[in-house]
Amino acid sequence: MAVNRYLPDSNRLSILSAMVLFAYAISNLVQAPQITLDMQLPGLYLAIPLNLNTVITLLAAGLTAAGMRWLLSEHPSVGNGMAIDHWFLPTLTTLVLGAPLALLPPGHWWWLGFSIGAFLLVLIFFAEYVVVEPAAPYYALATVGLTALSFALFLILVVAFRYSGVRLLLTGPAVFLAAGLVSLRTLHLRLLGRWQFAWAFGIGLICMQLAAGLHYWPIFPLQFGLFILGPLYALNGIAGNLSEGIPLKQAFIEPVTVLVLIWGGALLVG
User: Fold this and answer.
1) Which residues pair with 36 in a beta bridge?
2) Domain containing 227: what range?
3) Share above pLDDT 90 across residues of the chain, in percent, rounded to a whole number
């Protein structure tokens, strides 16, 4: 019983997962025309395509946030509290999954991507419930899993944006928001509840500037994602090390080493 009190209710977890995934399944089964919202600004023509996938992805994100609030309401450490920090990653996951699913052709590949996304989504729902209480038996494992999934989702989002040819005007803010949320969540997990808004804002800004600089380079989508993922991971590592009081020189060793490895992998991909 002591273990079960730190685990989500299976019925609520199943209902939440089914509702979100059903929304994505509708987008594959129902075809609807696409409309374009265009706006002529001084020196700039802005066109934003809207289709059923876009609408359903946004609705699924809102449903995920509300569903996490419902799922966490029975946690003994939350009760009637909001626990908004535990909504970030599930909501971001729902938004990220919409991008590759919209790019995959209908058929076996789409359902394979749907199945992988479903597994990741349920895993994140489960892990976010566990990490509410540091005394939970699986807290350390859940923290590591959420951190790894955060960076993986960021990479998927950036690669999908690059692959689909989204304009810089939309890519920049998306990278800033995703990098900021990932940094805010991972640092909050690592530092056991301490918020690092300044670090998250600065890291998001640096990643957005890097994405802007790489936008017109003739590189593959995976290279584009890895070139941005490296600094995101390194800056989060440095921020966490400095916040924990690790000496300056030691704080840079592991993050810079991983940065070199990720960038080396990006060059090998090319």
Assistant:
1) 49
2) 177-270
3) 37
Measure Cα distances from 201 to 198, 221, 223, 235 in Å: 5, 25, 24, 12
On whether both 41 and 121 belong to a single domain, the answer is yes
Indicate whether this model's pTM tops 0.90. Answer: no
- In tens, the pLDDT along 22-55 reads 888 887 777 666 666 666 666 666 666 667 777 8
Q: Which residues contact 222 (CB under 8 A, 6 or more apart)?
A: 159, 266, 269
> Does residue 176 surpass a pLDDT of 60?
yes
Regarding whether 268 and 181 lie in a shared domain, the answer is yes
DSSP string, 56-109: HHHHHHHHHHHHHHHHHTT-TTTTT---GGGTHHHHHHHHHHHHHHHHSPTTHH
DSSP single-letter state for residue 131: T
